[in-house]
Amino acid sequence: MGRYFAIRIGRAALTIVLVVTFAFVVLRLSGDPALMILGPEAPPEVIAAFRKAWGLDDPIWFQYLDYFHAIAKGELGRSMRDGRPAIQLVLERIPATLALTLPAFVFKVALGVPAGIYAALHRGSGIDRAVMMTAVAGFTVPSFVLALLLVLIFAVQLGWLPSGGQDSWRHAILPIATLSLGGAAVLARFTRSAMLEVLGQPYIRTASAKGVPWRKVVTSHALPNAAIPTVTILGFMVGTLIAGAVVVESVFSWPGVGRLLVVAVANRDLAVVQCILLLVALTMVTSNLVVDFLYGFLDPRLRAKGAHT
Amino acid sequence: MTTPLVEVASISRSYSMRSGMFGRNTAVHAVDGVSLAIRKGETLGLVGESGSGKSTTGRIVLGLEPPDRGDVRFGGKPMAAPGTPAWRAQRARMQMIFQDPLGALDRRLPVAAQIREPLDIHGLGTSAEREERVRELLRAVELTPAHGVRYPGALSGGQRQRVVLARALATKPDFLVCDEPVSALDVSIQAQVVNLLCDLQAQLELTLLFISHDLRVVRQISNIVAVMYLGRIVEIGNADDLFARPEHPYTQALVSASPAPGRRSAGRIVLSGDPPNPAARPQGCAFHPRCPRAIARCAVETPVLAVVGADRQVACHLVTGPQAETRDAA
Amino acid sequence: MAPLISIERLSVAFNGVPVLRGVDLSLQQGEALGLVGESGSGKSVTWLAALGLLPRQAKVTGSVRLDGREILGAPAAELDRVRGGRVAMIFQDPASALNPVLTIRRQLCEALALHRDLSGEAVKAEARRLLDVVGIPDAKRRIEAYPHEFSGGQVQRIMIAMALAGHPDLLIADEPTTALDATIQAQILDLLATIRREMGMAMVLISHDLGVVAENCDRVAVMYAGRIVEEAPANQIFADPVHPYAQGLIGALPPLDGPRRRLTAIPGTVPDPARMPAGCAFAPRCSLAAEPCCVAAPSLAPISDGRSVACIRAEASRRALLGMAAE
Lengths: 309, 330, 327
Prior knowledge:
By secondary structure, chain A is mainly alpha-helical. Helices cover 78% and strands 0% of the residues of chain A.
């Protein structure tokens, strides 16, 4: 059992290192933070001093090692913009983001999974087609388009809801709706295909041939099997709780982690960007680990392999 | 007597398999000391259940997989090292047909183009000659040029297997390994392909290694039949004679298990126990736990193939037993 | 004697394409009927349709009577009592016939709870007994295992145990041994024969393998392209097949003993259900086909005691066969 964990955790750690390295390299190669933050008109000696202060003069491999050294000590650096610790900046924004992503996650599941199951059970029916059309529309329309569409209808035309800001719970409705609809569409499609796959399996016919009523065939034979692939996509969605709202936060001027990321990237505020990416990688990898263990719980074929030694 | 076209001398092949996700590695002896000789123009049938090692043997004979021990000689010469020109020349003389023709064909290419492919690869003939050869091959497998322009998906299972056969014959091979070539086909189509194989073999003087679990089909097409159980040959002999008078208890059970029209199931030998598991090979004779006639010696000592008649070798203590030893001693 | 089950004019179409084109069959209490035919002949569809196990898109017409009571189109609750209770079914592919995420106990007890008046410990005890009956060693412990922990032959035994749970009068075995090795196939057929003898159960054995059917059944029906083309006592159909297709099937089977002969392959392939030829579906492949064969499809007509055949050239075909034998 230890070996199983060790491999998975090792793989997770490697993923994080790769993500961080990639972000590091891309950010350093794509623009000079000193120029971005101080502006092109800044006097050369100010720029030189800024570079020296942040270690930007050192060779890139040195900066890279230095960065990892700092991470190992738990230091995630300071914002080049206002000098505050990057982690502090990011943590401040997390509650705002979760205020959108958590309710959105609940709605996605509550809407997408039943819609997918229903569509699969009534394959080819009018409702199935309607669900699928909505789902295709839901994930082909980019979230900023959907967001703008919702703003246009509910804020501009009807004037029911504010178009941006964070002053009351009413401000959260449109961003949450935008996030939920897209996610629900993906989930519905995924659940539907997982269910269809399972419903076509011989063991479903076996259950019917035993005289199990159809309702019970669905609940006790089909659903537990369809849950296995669906958990993968749910895990992925959990992984996007922290930083899955970049676009939506920007459109609705919601002061969450996503907006912080956009601003920090634009400014080449390296420590902040890297801190966010590290956090994203961590949540992604953790939710993937959880999914792996859930698999073991849901699928006895994997569990049994685990129990051999 | 001429030297056999294909000679296999005590080849063995084991895989390392991990039992489960965390298990320790165990060696699975897929093939264990198999020797065979196939004379030119003859067909050797290889029979056995899943896990008997018959397909692995076929792959080793073709050089698709190296044996751990033992060697394979083709036309009196050892197999050349993979990748060398000599190896390629040898490989053009031997071809393989599998059970699943759809898997062996490219769904996005018309079948005539796929039959032509080996000719292009081995650079045989001019473009016009290749075209002509493709037409000839289609005719040989009883298909028309109209079939040639179709895609594999538009052909029936039997027709696809004919295409695979035509492609295998493109380079005029001397030797063909057929691994369950008709098992996926319906009886009436199976008969068409079996007849075709028999005809082509006679016309082209092909040498065949015919691997199948179906005793009837194997007998129909083979001169010599070898029965495998858990990686070893337990009995080998003339096809008609072997099925008429099986000596090894396993062969007897197999023959008896093959249902015959007009016979009721009474008197059939039904073996107890599970199908053999190559990862847990029993000590002694691998068949002894399921053998209805096993004696104490079978659990300890592994029987070796011994000559028991003009045309038969059997690996069984009960058949060769003490008599065989005394015969040897005499 | 009133038949246990009788099927009349059963037809099935998928999206307007007919796959079953009027099947008549009946089975007496305790009888074993073999159903042979190649893939696509409709032998499995016949019984899936009879038990209402086809997807909704399938259009099923005709009549299926169990003890004289119509079950085709019966309400779901009534069908659920028939399935697994009066008529049980086992299938070909042992690897996927059992639910992979449920224990054997759950799946066995489910069937017992549905069809037997048992509760609590009694259900479990009966489940263990059934596993014993079908020869699963160490049933007490193994009952808590999952399907993937069993070999193909063992899964088929478990399927049989599940089928027996409701004390059915009829067992439909759909290619029960096709996916199994020869020696395991022999075990399963042996088990089925023993159980049938002890329980007096009727059985339909669906198989593409003539030998399997011949050895294990009293009566055999040969199907081709969605119809029954010949029906006869098992011992007679092999000695004296009348329908040219039945003759072809038998001739295509390589003999295991005696002299080798060239196989009499049936030319061509099974017709596409969407483009069925007019008249007899076998006519395009039949060496005896005459002009009238292509006009109207022949119906299954009795030719002697217990035998019927759907061929207008039956007499000619029989003569041809006798001629062959005389040579």
